[in-house]
Structure prediction request, 283 residues.
Amino acid sequence: MAAEGKAPTAGEYIVHHLQHLQNQKQTAVVDFSVFNLDSIFWATLLGVLTCLFLWRAAKHATSGVPGRFQAAVEFLVEMVDSQAKGIVHSANSRKLVAPLALTVFIWIFLMNAMDLLPVDLLPSIWHVAGPAMGAPDYQRVVPTADLSVTMGLSISVLLVCIFYNIKIKGLGGWTHELFSAPFGDKFYLYPINFAMQLIEFVAKTVSHGMRLFGNMYAGELIFMLIALLGGAFTLSVTGFALAALHIVAGTAWAIFHILIITLQAFVFMMLTLVYVGQAHDSH
Prediction:
């Protein structure tokens, strides 16, 4: 990160924290053989925790007076179910879509919440463990601050939408819709209609992933900048002022960030429901 025996500069500190632990060195701007192993690990771990969370809630649910945990889960289930009923009007489709939306909400919330951990907590542990195993000294722990993760999620939603387009309308019906909407079923409008449909699918998918990535990436950067205030501490009036500002700014941003991580998980879930609901509509 810096020369041996020298503290890193602010720029070196941020650049180091923005590097991913990868399976190999990236040699091109777009290289599909490179995987961000840290994002894969944390996203998978939090996905498993999400499944365990929901499994435990289902296993210990009772018909009597619910405890705090069951009440919290019931609140989430009712919230997602009410949103799903208002958007996806097919009761049969909601049997899959509503649980999917609930899982997406909790999973993304947990991935976003990794941003609330101290910036150097897990990377400092990896700083010791990683090189000891012969791995590079890089570790990013917020999967949703990785564009490959958020775009992977949005592409998965696109695949679900394509599935329901074909299931509800049939392959022939959906193909006809691709060429006949939005400007009408005229043969000379088919190329324009198809181009507009492709643009719509691409725009929805890209914006779906980029919105989540942009918010979480910006939040991660702000936490790094706040961490630099604490790193500038010295036994001086200025040093103590920076340390105090570090504590105040860190606390204020963390409290505000709780709203951001929840809101971003909710927005991603709602857009998932909206896009799947649109797949049920005929033009």
Summary: Residues 10-25+33-279 form one domain.
